[in-house]
């Protein structure tokens, strides 16, 4: 695989919330905060990074490309919404966070979430918005803890989980707030693969192997996103219309 390119930071080099690097056909989105909680600025940075990746793919007319997201820390992929900052912004969930999830869900490249640590609530939702998920084998849980807060689960978020998960797993995720270890997540079809070895690097290498294997599908261009929209019509719809009910 080609050497890693220099990082491009978002929202800027002076305010580094996340970075994009390239390894051959792979674009690596690395979230750089300790727990990667979602705020207005963090969601905007993710969307800007995705737009940057798409602009590069289009400009270079790449026939092979895929996106991997990961956290930089040992502990968290993402710890969900930054409650104080998020809820201080009117309409944050419906107008900022869920549209970001939809952007990932329909992104016109193959996508792989490398879950390097805990993925709680909004962090689990971000991982679930990807096409594939790899989780490190030795550390971290995936969990939706809204029922324990307690907090309602907006229709768009619920639809995303419902489309992605087997029903009995979906039920335990949203009604029991079950914390899934890597092995449990694999058995429950929450994640697609876990490495045999412990640590972040084996998980990242496995994520890269999966992404590399499917990167050639990017040659379909915008059709990739159109097919994803047909795969998840209800989830995509409710992620973009907010609190509308079934």
Write the layout of secondary structure elements.
Elements: E1 8-12, E2 15-23, E3 26-31, H1 40-60, E4 66-71, E5 76-78, H2 83-87, H3 92-105, E6 111-115, E7 118-120, H4 122-128, E8 132-135, E9 142-143, H5 155-164, H6 167-175, H7 182-187, H8 200-214, H9 222-231, H10 233-241
Provide a descriptive summary of the structure in words.
With 246 residues, the protein is of the alpha/beta class. The protein has a single domain (8-241), classed as 2-enoyl-CoA Hydratase, Chain A, domain 1 (Alpha-Beta Complex), CATH 3.90.226. It has ten helices and nine strands. It has a six-stranded mixed beta sheet, sandwiched between helices. Strands 5-7-9 form a three-stranded parallel beta sheet.
Give a nutshell description of this structure:
Pfam families: ECH_1. The protein is an alpha/beta fold. The chain is built from ten helices and nine strands.
